[in-house]
Structure formats: structure tokens, C-alpha cells
Recover the amino acids of this structure.
């Protein structure tokens, strides 16, 4: 049965690799299409790519396996961090939680910037940009601190809790050096941290919906826009909406589930959160693919590359055959 845990870790590792491949491809498209009409979207997408690249590091680095066992919450660190001190490994997990929340909380700011630049024709000052990012970093740091206070850091689960090690050992392989964090599901800091995350996520969701509705109305009702420009702005707007929706689903569903489990004081759930984590690891892969597919200039740019390469190959072969024929004659 530990094969199941190995497959989950392999799935998350593949997600990390594909995340880097897709995000670097998107970054290449952004650089090659850095035009005035795409500038505001490109700036937002560069931020998203940076967050996705950071987020993509954690599945293969941490290799988290979360389980409720006998009223305690365990998170095993089975990834590459097993080769470092267990305190560092557990801090990596807390950092992952902070970064994931930062990715979700960044979308309200991006929709606000989009609203100001598109609907109000205002430039976003560097000071406002820096101030809002500072607020987001403080929120992410608060969440990191909450998890740091909620969990205690350990290694050698067998020695710490033999019954729990037998349950978790049915799903994932670990040894005496494998780091893990643990907390009581009814402790103060654990539900308090998830409650804080849930409140910030709900507020963020309402902010996104508010500005998304404003932007959509502006695009549809603006008579000064040509059909081409309306199509372009709607295309960019849909891209941001889909990215936001994916991250909210990836962030809100686990948080709500964890909050419900904590309130109901569920005693055992050995694998459901690990399976969910394995699925949500692919969000950072889907996001760049959605952007490339929906944004026509990016899609055309990538399609033109194989065609160009094919034409170059054909031209080279034709030239070589012509040269050979001339030599024979």
C-alpha cells in the first residue's frame, strides 16, 4: 500500500516539472509579445508566472502527506527536504501554506489594477503597487506564523506515535529521519489560522467578483471600442477570470474542508487531503496553458514556430537537392 503514496509523490513531481515547462513557455510568449496593447496584461501575467514558479517548487521539495489520525493532524515531509534538518523541512511546509495563500490573495489586487488602468484610465503608481504587495506579504507572513504556532516539528513518527505511524505507513513510506508536523485538531491556533485564511479568501473572492463585473460591463457598454478591441479585452479578461477561479477552487475548497473537519473534530482521515493536494498541484500547470490558449497573440506565436521550422527545413532540403543536381549535371 505504500505504493499509493509513491504514486501521489510521483504525480506531484510531474506537476512540478510540467509547471516549470508551461510557465517558462508562457514567459517566452510574454517577452516576444511585449506590445503596448498587451502591456498591462503582460505585467500581471509575469507576476502570476513568478508565483506559479515558486509554488511549483514545493510539491517535489516538500512531498506533503496530510492525515487526520486519532484526532491529530499530521503532515509528513517525504520530498527532497528529507535530506535536511527536520526543523528546516517543517518550516518549508509553513512557507508553502503562506505562498499558496499569497497566490490566491494576489488576484483582488490584480483585478483592482486592471479596473483602474482599463476603466478609469489611471496609471497605477509604483508606490501603490509596492504598498499593496506589502499588505499581501504581511497577510502571507501572518498565515505562515499561524501555522508555525499551530504545529510542532518532529522527526521519527514511529517513536513519537506508534499507532499513527502504522496507519500512515499503510499509505506512504517514511523512516526515522522523515520530518513531520503535528497538532491537535481542536487546539486554538489550528482552527484560528484556518478561520483567518477562510475570511481573507471570502473577502478576496468578493473583491474579484466586484471588479470583474465592473470590467465586463465597461467592455460591453463602451461604444468607443471597436469590435477588435472588445474581443481583445474580453480575451484578456477571461484569462484572468479563469486563473482566479482555478486558484480560488484550489485554495478555498481545502480550507473549507479543513475548517469543517476541525469544527466537527473528525478523528481519522488518512488520505483524502493527500489526494486533494495531488490534484491541486496541477493548478500551476493549467494556469499558463489556459493563458496561452485564450490569448490569441500567444497562440499564434507558438503556432508560427513549428510552421517556420518546417518551412526552413523544406527550404534547406530543396537547396541541398538543387545543389546536388547541379553537381551531377
Amino acid at each position: 500500500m505504500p505504493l499509493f503514496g509513491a504514486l501521489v509523490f510521483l504525480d506531484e513531481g510531474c506537476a512540478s516539472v510540467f509547471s516549470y515547462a508551461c510557465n517558462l513557455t508562457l514567459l517566452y510568449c510574454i517577452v516576444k509579445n511585449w506590445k503596448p496593447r498587451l502591456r498591462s496584461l503582460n505585467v500581471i501575467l509575469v507576476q502570476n508566472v513568478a508565483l506559479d514558479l515558486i509554488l511549483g517548487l514545493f510539491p517535489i521539495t516538500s512531498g506533503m502527506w496530510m492525515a487526520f489520525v486519532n484526532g491529530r493532524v499530521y503532515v509528513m515531509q517525504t520530498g527532497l527536504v528529507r535530506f535536511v534538518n527536520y526543523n528546516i523541512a517543517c518550516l518549508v511546509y509553513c512557507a508553502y501554506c503562506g505562498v499558496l495563500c499569497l497566490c490566491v490573495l494576489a488576484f483582488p489586487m490584480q483585478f483592482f489594477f486592471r479596473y483602474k488602468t482599463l476603466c478609469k484610465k489611471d496609471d497605477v503608481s509604483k508606490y501603490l503597487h509596492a504598498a499593496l504587495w506589502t499588505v499581501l506579504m504581511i497577510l502571507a507572513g501572518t498565515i505562515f506564523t499561524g501555522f508555525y504556532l499551530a504545529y510542532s516539528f518532529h522527526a521519527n513518527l514511529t517513536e513519537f506515535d506508534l499507532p499513527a505511524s502504522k496507519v500512515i505507513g499503510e499509505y506512504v513510506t517514511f523512516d526515522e529521519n522523515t520530518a513531520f508536523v503535528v497538532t491537535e485538531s481542536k487546539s486554538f491556533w489550528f482552527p484560528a489560522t484556518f478561520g483567518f485564511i477562510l475570511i481573507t479568501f471570502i473577502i478576496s473572492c468578493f473583491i474579484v467578483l466586484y471588479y470583474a463585473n465592473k470590467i465586463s460591463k465597461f467592455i460591453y457598454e463602451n461604444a468607443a471600442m471597436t469590435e477588435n478591441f472588445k474581443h481583445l479585452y474580453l480575451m484578456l479578461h477571461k484569462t484572468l477570470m479563469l486563473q482566479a477561479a482555478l486558484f480560488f477552487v484550489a485554495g478555498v475548497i481545502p480550507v473549507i474542508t479543513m475548517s469543517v473537519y476541525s469544527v466537527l473534530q473528525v478523528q481519522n482521515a488518512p488520505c483524502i487531503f493527500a489526494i486533494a493536494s495531488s490534484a491541486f498541484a496541477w493548478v500551476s500547470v493549467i494556469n499558463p496553458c489556459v493563458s496561452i490558449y485564450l490569448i490569441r497573440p500567444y497562440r499564434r506565436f507558438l503556432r508560427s514556430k513549428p510552421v517556420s521550422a518546417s518551412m526552413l527545413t523544406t527550404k534547406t532540403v530543396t537547396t541541398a537537392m538543387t545543389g546536388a543536381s547541379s553537381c551531377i549535371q
The longest strand covers residues 64-69. The CA atoms of residues 34 and 42 lie 7 Å apart. The domain at 2-294 is CATH 1.20.1070.10 (Rhopdopsin 7-helix transmembrane proteins).
